[in-house]
Amino acid sequence: MSKDTVHTAEVAAPTGATATPADAGDAGYSKDLKHRHVNMIAIGGAIGTGLFLGAGGRLHTAGPALAAAYLVCGVFAFFVVRALGELVLYRPSSGSFVSYAREFLGEKGAYVAGWMYFLNWSTTGIADITAIALYTHYWSLFTSIPQWVLALAALAVVLAVNLISVKIFGEMEFWFSVVKVATLVAFMCIGIFLLATRHEVDGRAPGLGVITDNGGLLPHGLMPVVIVMQGVIFAYAALELVGVAAGETAEPEKVVPRAVNSIMWRVGLFYVGSVVLLALLLPGSAYSADQSPFVTVLSKIGVSGAGDVMNLVVLTAAMSSLNSGLYSTGRILRSMAMAGSAPKFTARMNRSQVPYGGILLTCGVCVLGVGLNYLVPEQAFEIVLNVASLGVISTWVIIMVCHLVFVRRARAGLLHRPSFRLPGSPGTEIVTIAFLIAVLGLMWNDPEVGRKTVLLVPLIAAALVAGWFGIRNRVARTADQELTGPTK
Q: Burial of 182 by CB count in 10 Å (0-12 exposed, 13-18 middle, 19+ buried)?
């Protein structure tokens, strides 16, 4: 076996195919996540800070056509998570796509996949604590407290909870998701009622007139809609959590297909439906990047305390996203550490079978985000959002490339594809990869933030190359030692 290929143990496989490699990093985890946990984690992954906070600034920039951007990106997000779902049923792993990259692309592929995912979630964590601080400043009681102090407090609370056990994480995400779904449904009911009764919102009667009287679907032209695509992609960034969580559930073959298939209607209902309602209730100019669009609407309809309630809910959503980020990076980094491509301490687990080393490393980067909130509090959210989008795009591209190789090997008779499959392969993967690369290219048209983000690509690539040369000997030694158990 090449030292740049999979260093794993072998487990039984169906007759007629080669044995399925098992990720050494999967050893030692509990299987405490229930069906309801994984289902709601999937829902929670589709409803987060990108919708609750990010949609406000994007509506202001792009106008009502933002709904079409959410729909298009949602379709490609579904393709990605459907491909990942098929890989999960082939071989469930807490290392998720990093483990699959190791199997199908070799250790270099796993190294790139893992560290780009770490970049994604560590910067997303910064975005989340920034969002939490912004939400908290909505209440006058907290406006005098510096934004960085609130961000640090939020990080400390979520870290403490995340280290307890995976069961506690599952319960928290379950109830976080219940709150988010229930609130969105309630908001949509209120929005539909306002439309049906023509109840004025901020002195305007809601309906199509709000759109036609304020520049139509594209009040600022097509380019702003194109430019916000990378932010819309970010909104769907947590959907791949299903793949990570599957490694800690007892029956992934039952729960994963159900969770993945339901994502499409969630996208249509929660994202596209919510943005359409927001556009029909208020013109895009009424929304802003520093306040949730749902809070904006509810604060303007004259219902006492409505804005406060919604603000509390979106605060919960940001806490949920931060919680999920710490959970997923902890598992991904452990899978990498067991292969030698991440620091050894990130493989460590506590008595509750939680990989605390990787979680603490992610928190360390988030602390840098606290500093960002101190230095540039007004720009912190947009800066890290765009950097995180680079991690999201690269992660999704790697998932689709892994799936292409997986399908090719299945057609060669080297392994069996499960009955739950990505439709239209290999065309679906190729079109999705092309779309994601196009979104990255279109970021160049945004001179404010997007262009600066694209200019980071060569720097990130250089850092990855330097890092690989720094750890490649350790990866080779680890492969030779054939580690199959958790680090003590």
A: exposed
In terms of Cβ atoms closer than 10 Å to its own Cβ (0-12, 13-18, 19+), residue 323 is: buried
Four-point Cα dihedral 309, 311, 312, 316, nearest 10: 140
Instruction: Give 362-420 pLDDT, tens digit per residue.
Output: 888 888 766 766 676 666 666 676 677 788 889 899 999 999 999 999 999 998 899 88
Query: What are the residue boundaries of the structural domains of the chain, listed by start?
Result: 32-469
The whole-angstrom separation of Cα 286 and Cα 358 is 41
Which of 488, 484, 473 lies closest to 3, judged by CA?
Answer: 473
DSSP-assigned beta bridge partners for residue 33: 249
> Which span out of 38-47, 233-242, 281-290 was modeled with the highest average pLDDT?
281-290
What pTM was computed for the model? Answer: 0.84
The third-level CATH classification (topology) of the domain covering 32-469 is Amino acid/polyamine transporter I (1.20.1740)
Task: Judge whether 399 and 97 are in contact, CB under 8 Å.
Answer: yes
Determine the Cα–Cα distance for residues 454 and 441; give it in Å rounded to an integer: 8
